[in-house]
Specification:
By secondary structure, the protein is an alpha+beta fold. Helix 1 crosses helix 3. The longest helix has 18 residues.
Length: about 80
């Protein structure tokens, strides 16, 4: 699985969680944390200001990230 696929999957989860409660963090699984591709995906999102990391593996979408990816990932928001 490429980092882009991982990043897209993370974004879908984060957008849905943001819509439930924007203050809630998502805890990534151990398997995800052990993946170098996942770490790259999270780092890129964090560096762009789209996710906030409370501690390693505990992340949430920022308002900026939500605005960007809500329109880019419409399938994530099909309720």
């Amino acid at each position: 699985m490429t980092w882009q696929n991982i990043q897209d999957g993370l974004l879908v989860t984060l957008v849905l969680r943001y819509e439930e409660d924007p203050r809630q963090f998502v805890t990534l699984s151990r398997q995800t944390l052990d993946s170098s591709s996942a770490r790259v995906a999270v780092a890129e999102l964090r560096n762009e200001g789209f996710v906030e990391e409370q501690l390693r593996g505990v992340i949430r979408l920022t308002a900026r990230g939500y605005k960007k990816y809500k329109t880019t990932l419409p399938y994530a928001c099909a309720g």
